[in-house]
Design a protein that fits this description.
The chain has about 750 residues and is α+β, with helices and mostly antiparallel strands. It has 19 helices and 34 strands. A hairpin with a 2-residue loop joins strand 26 and strand 27. It is globular, with a radius of gyration of 30 Å.
Length: about 750
């Protein structure tokens, strides 16, 4: 007689491991009904248990044939795989995403990538793959990637906060709720620690509780709010020992195989706070009589490829990071400081290897010819944008006076010609203010400001754009594969949304012909005249596609260029390092150029570095939001001026004038009317009164709530909106009254939130 399975003592919802153990240790458990009885699933637990079974089946942990369920012994033919971050890019292997270590050693899975595959995975990625059994080797598979999947965070993270009732977890994401942490689940976490937690449900009503599984650090004591974003988005920020050893072992490269350009007085122009300098410039009048009024412009870029060779520890880590990430409180570099701030930084008066382009321009700034060279240079002077601009304006200081006539003014003259060519080309002229945050010694916000945009900034930008174009043109001419920097033209849906919005401002916009950047520039110019610049600029920006890296060229719409690649910042962008290697191969400048294996992987590399760029932007934005929310958290009840920066069905986003902080205004708190979202006008409009709040409108708001760890602010608008025609007259009175009641409830909740916040401060 078969032994009757012994059920567990607990009658809570089992976890996945308990279900797997039950199936393995009790052969008589064959169906979902058997498992339901075994775990005494009743009442409120039935629906969660059914969901758990379905999830385990989807993940390939259990298999089902008819009503019979069993623990999976073979992997499904289509399954989710994780490629380890340290996997060899030339020979990728993977493990099942939900492999249970108690089941023993995971199977060997080789990920096969063919040259024409549309989906090209890389180290550290999660993929949906089709598996094929290796008949000659037990527990072995090959896999072909079908899709690259977003990789979920290993665990939920938050900040531990102690109170009179014990400890709780403050979420770092706005949609998450606070959870209590039992004393025995704190795992030695202290007040203010950033932690990873497991979420467990307790009691019949399944109350979520957090258990600390790892302590990441303390953002407050370490003075690094960016630590939250780094961990939340899984951005590598500590270099492995192997990489640091490789960086320390690197020695300066010699002049062998290089042209000696040390007599050319290159200069670097950077922000005053810059620690790495990867680009230098020089210009002179062209002495060729066939090019009257022409210029010769030299752009020299740090030769990172000489130190970071394909397949090395430095190269693998640079690929994994994809780019440097810049925060107000720290920089997470793509390469160790020994490389980025020392050997490859174009320091004043020091010999440095560089990859340079020599461009011949006519008097109108149009390029007549160019050539690439691998050189040794010596920087004559390193100056800031402010110092350069003062010299251009005729007010040099002691340092710039020495180079004003021989270096700075020829640069200025060349830029004037290039600016003329740029204006004739007509790139998208979208110049939105960029705010900077200055921190004090404690890592807190001291001030927020908009740095001035000098012509010196534009001079460097224009010369870098020209160098990038030359790189793409040279590689195309030599039929050398590369990664382009591409930017598609706006899609039809976004253009129609922009047209509707502009119509509400009595501005016309045609979408019938092939769209060009110049059409946007006309709108932007007219908006500036009509004092509607901010709202129109915001909508034009939203209508644009997102730039990306791609081995297939479809041009750069924003710059109005047919060929464009990133060449000028190999210290901080992996894309530029790939372009450097491609140029070395195409121009015969050395043996450390682009390898055949890299060429086969360009599609995957482009996908990966496009992802790391978006990840870096998200991390920088999250950190800025948290820092400013911290800065404003002791100003609950204060009033501010700002502008409406976004309109959605649930309410309005408002950007404060002084700090640039973004906060939300729930629709239920707007006025004494029912406000309807009108997308084509980017406005909330009162049905009965016609009062309207639209994108770009100036408003006065009161700060009601600040959630620093989530980087969230909540405002109430205390100024009146603009008056216009009602949407539907008296027909919506019942909805209006209902809305008033919901608005009153919203204001009551807001009042409680303010009182709660003040109690916390006291």
């Amino acid at each position: 007689m078969a032994k009757k399975p012994t059920p567990p003592a607990s009658k809570q919802l089992p976890d996945k491991q308990q279900v797997l153990d039950a199936l393995e240790n009790n052969p008589d458990l064959k169906s979902k009904r058997d498992l339901t009885r075994y775990f005494a699933i009743k009442g409120d637990l039935r629906a969660p248990f059914k969901k758990l079974m379905r999830q385990m089946q989807d993940e390939g942990l259990i298999t089902r044939k008819g009503k019979t369920m069993r623990r999976a012994t073979e992997l499904p033919r289509v399954t989710v795989l994780d490629i380890p971050p340290d996997a060899d890019p030339d020979s990728l292997t993977a493990i099942p995403a939900n492999w249970d270590e108690s089941a023993g050693k995971p199977p060997f899975i080789a990920v096969i990538v063919k040259r024409n595959d549309r989906t090209v995975p890389g180290p550290g990625e999660r993929i949906l793959a089709r598996l094929f059994t290796n008949e000659n080797q037990a527990n072995s598979y090959t896999a072909r990637a079908m899709k690259i999947l977003p990789k979920p965070r290993r665990a939920q993270i938050g900040i531990v906060k102690y109170d009179k009732n014990g400890a709780r977890l403050l979420p770092i994401e706005r949609k998450q709720k606070e959870m209590r942490i039992a004393a025995h689940d704190l795992n030695n976490a202290k007040d203010g620690d950033l932690v990873e937690v497991e979420v467990r449900s307790k009691g019949r009503i399944m109350t979520p509780m957090a258990k600390v599984v790892a302590i990441v650090g303390n953002p407050l004591s370490e003075g690094a709010v960016s630590l939250i974003a780094l961990h939340d988005l899984e951005i590598p920020y500590r270099f492995p020992d192997e990489v640091l050893r490789a960086a320390q072992a690197a020695r300066p490269v010699t002049n062998k195989g290089r042209e000696d350009w040390r007599d050319i007085p290159f200069i670097t122009i950077d922000p005053a706070s810059a620690k790495d300098h990867d680009d230098a410039v020089f210009a002179e009048a062209d002495s060729d009589k066939s090019n009257p009024g022409g210029h010769i412009v030299y752009v020299a870029i740090a030769d990172v490829a000489a130190y970071v060779t394909y397949g090395s520890a430095l190269d693998k880590e640079a690929y994994l990071r994809g780019n440097s990430v810049y925060f107000p409180d720290r920089v997470v570099p793509m390469l160790p400081e020994r490389i980025s701030n020392d050997l490859c930084s174009l320091r004043e008066k020091e010999n440095r290897p560089a990859l340079a382009v020599r461009m011949v321009l006519d008097k109108n700034g149009l390029k007549k010819d160019h050539s690439f060279h691998r050189v040794t240079i010596k920087i004559a002077a390193g100056i800031s944008y402010t110092e350069a601009q003062a010299a251009f304006d005729g007010h040099p200081d002691a340092k710039t006076k020495k180079i004003q006539s021989g270096v700075l003014m020829p640069l200025w003259n060349a830029y004037q010609a290039m600016a003329k060519a740029r204006d004739n080309r007509g790139p998208l002229d979208l110049d939105l203010p960029e705010r900077r945050i200055v921190l004090d010694d404690d890592g807190k916000v001291a001030r927020v400001f908009v740095p001035p945009r000098h012509e010196a900034n534009r001079l460097i930008e224009e010369m870098m754009v020209a160098a990038n174009v030359c790189a793409a043109q040279t590689l195309d001419k030599n039929n050398t594969p590369l990664i382009y920097r591409v930017h598609d033209q706006p899609g039809p849906e976004k253009l129609l949304a922009l047209k509707d919005f502009l119509s509400s401002l009595d501005m016309s916009f045609s979408t019938s012909a092939a769209i060009k950047p110049s059409q946007f520039n006309q709108i932007l110019h007219k908006a500036k005249k009509d004092d509607k610049s901010i709202q129109v600029s915001e909508m034009v920006l939203r209508s644009q596609a997102q730039a990306e890296y791609n081995p297939t060229n479809y041009g750069h719409f924003g710059l109005n260029l047919g060929q464009y690649a990133h060449f000028t910042s190999p210290i901080r962008r992996y894309a530029d390092l790939i372009v450097h290697r491609a140029l070395i191969s195409a121009c015969g400048l050395g043996k450390d150029g682009l390898s055949t294996k890299e060429i086969e992987q360009l599609a995957g590399i482009a996908q990966h570095i496009s992802m790391t760029e978006r990840r870096a932007m998200a991390a920088e934005r999250q950190t800025t939001d948290r820092l400013i929310a911290h800065f404003l958290s002791d100003q609950i009840g204060a009033k501010f001026t700002g502008q409406i920066s976004g309109v959605v069905g649930a309410g309005l986003f408002v950007k404060l004038a002084q700090t640039g902080a973004d906060g939300f205004v729930p629709a239920s708190t707007l006025g004494n009317d029912y406000f309807r979202h009108v997308p084509e006008q980017q406005a909330m409009i009162g049905e009965r009164t016609g009062e309207r709040f639209a994108l770009g409108d100036p408003v006065e708001v009161q700060l009601l709530e600040a959630a620093p760890m989530a980087g969230a602010l909540r405002f109430e608008i205390i100024s009146k909106g603009k008056m216009g025609a009602p949407l539907s007259g008296r027909k919506s009175n019942s909805r209006t009254r209902a809305h008033k009641r919901s608005g009153q409830r919203g204001r009551t909740k807001t009042k409680r939130a303010v009182q709660k916040s003040r109690r916390k401060q006291s």
